[in-house]
Amino acid sequence: MNLRGIVAVSGRPGLFKLVGQNKAGYVLESLDAQKVKIVANITTTKLASLEDITVYGEDEDLKLTDVLANMVAAKGEVPDAKADPKVLKAFFSEVAPNHDQEKVYASDMKKIVSWYHLLKDLPLFNEEAPAAPAEGEAVKEDKAEKKPKATPKPANAKAPSKTAQPAKKANMTSKKGV
Questions:
Q1: Which of 18, 48, 74, 138 counts the most CB atoms within 10 A of its CB?
Q2: pLDDT in tens, the chain (178 residues)
Q3: Where in the chain is the domain with CATH 1.10.10.1650?
Q4: Where would one find the signal peptide in this protein (predicted)?
């Protein structure tokens, strides 16, 4: 399951795909049928990548990707997000058996189920996540290509004149009142 670039935005329903970034913020495209593009302000908007989201667990936290994978493998139908909270709790205890029942609320379960229904038909939901390089592997190409870079001059910068003398320091002591 490849959820790289899929984010949840605080204060907005649904999920978004990170398309790019500009001076004003992140350019996001909604994953619903309308495909609305928005620019989320960098300083005020909180984004949460679905790869990084975890669910409270009794022993250790559960990754959202694992919970979604269990939903795919669930024998029964995945309930609707508007289903009765008791039905959602029973389903969630099946797909995430070690979740902390005191910390994971029905609203959290509804949100995860609604995300599942948004993602299940997308092609990225069925493709493998790109593998990150292992810790022991060092990328030798990057180290070989690192050369000191010359800093480019701005186009409007003037070259110093040969006759220009450095400015003399002004005497900052005052002789008043002596």
A1: 18
A2: 778 889 999 888 889 999 998 888 899 998 887 788 888 888 888 999 999 999 999 989 999 999 998 888 876 788 888 889 899 999 999 999 889 999 999 999 999 999 998 888 787 766 665 555 444 444 444 444 444 444 445 555 555 555 555 555 445 554 555 4
A3: 53-128
A4: none
Tokens for 146, please give them: 């690192």
